[in-house]
Amino acid sequence: MLWTDLAQGEFSLQYVGVNGVRTRCLSAGQREAPPLVFLHGSGGHLEAYQRNILPHATHFRVFAIDMLGHGFTDKPDHDYEIDHYVDHLMAFCDTQGLSRIHLSGESLGGWVAVRAAIRHPERIGKLVLNTAGGLTADPVVMERLRTLSMNAVRNPDRRAVRQRLEWLMHDKSVVTDDLVEMRYRIYSRPGAEKMMEHIMCLQVMEIRRRNMIPIEDLRQIKAPTLVVWTDHDPTGKVEVGETFAREIPDARLIVMENCGHWPQYEDAETFNRIHLEFLCG
């Protein structure tokens, strides 16, 4: 059940003012431990990491946030492009006194993490790119994601929300009623359709292309990097992960089996093991 994994340990859930944006944040671990920030994907929320936070909190001061415009964080009335997310992330870190962080992002969160590592190399310790976006512009995938996402908010019902979540998974049975209910509550809030239009701007080809990561920019990344991909990712083949790992100077690739776009949730035990081995190694 949702939050059951978190209920076994100590954590704090709060709202933080970030340049006027009320930002939902969950944190766990000792204040003096090295900070680790988790970033979720498009249309997501911090519960994407509910199965990962406590295992990492034994080693790190862990933060999971609802990114700009997502979840229960405020939703400014403009399209959200990658630099907007990076600016919000860095400003959040400033509010917490985090001068240097380990950064782990999934999908859109990985795209934001790449750009943050390029723009702010002095602030990123280790970097994890989990089925990250930013390298490809497949019209079929973009249209599928946009259609499922907009359907889930235009006339919100739990069936449409479940379809949106099941698209992320190889094993559809891991989409629990509790997870559907959490996302349904977010997607049925006032202004949800406008929120999703702002989020889905990156599925518009013109906007997406100006936000994509040039290959030569990957070569600027100084942080040791782990690329996590899967054998059933619906957004891109393993070759995309191989490109990240080949072009980032100090990077390696691990491909998780029998997972879709949320390996940190679908096979949390394996993800936590390889993630901690990298971060602690």
Describe this structure in words.
The chain is of the alpha/beta class. The chain has one domain (about 5-280): Alpha/Beta hydrolase fold, catalytic domain (Rossmann fold), CATH 3.40.50.1820. About 40% of the residues lie in helices and about 20% in strands. It has an 8-stranded mixed beta sheet with strand order 1-2-4-3-5-6-7-8, with helices on both faces. The longest helix has 16 residues, at about 140-155. The chain is globular and about 45 Å long. About 45% of the residues are buried. The model has no long low-confidence stretch (mean pLDDT about 95).
Topology record:
Elements: H1 4-7, E1 12-18, E2 21-28, E3 35-39, H2 53-57, E4 61-65, H3 82-95, E5 101-106, H4 108-119, E6 124-130, H5 139-154, H6 158-166, H7 177-187, H8 192-199, H9 205-211, H10 215-218, E7 225-230, H11 238-247, E8 251-256, H12 263-266, H13 268-280
Parallel strand pairs: 3-4, 3-5, 5-6, 6-7, 7-8
Antiparallel strand pairs: 1-2, 2-4
Helix fraction by DSSP (H/I, runs of at least 4): 40-55%
Which sequence of strands runs across the widest sheet? 1-2-4-3-5-6-7-8
Strand content: 15-25%
Number of domain units: 1
State the major sheet: 8 strands, mixed
Detail the poorly predicted runs: none
Please provide the ordered H/E string of secondary-structure elements. HEEEHEHEHEHHHHHHEHEHH
Fourth-level CATH superfamily: Alpha/Beta hydrolase fold, catalytic domain
Q: Please give the alpha-carbon distance between the first and last residues.
A: 32 Å
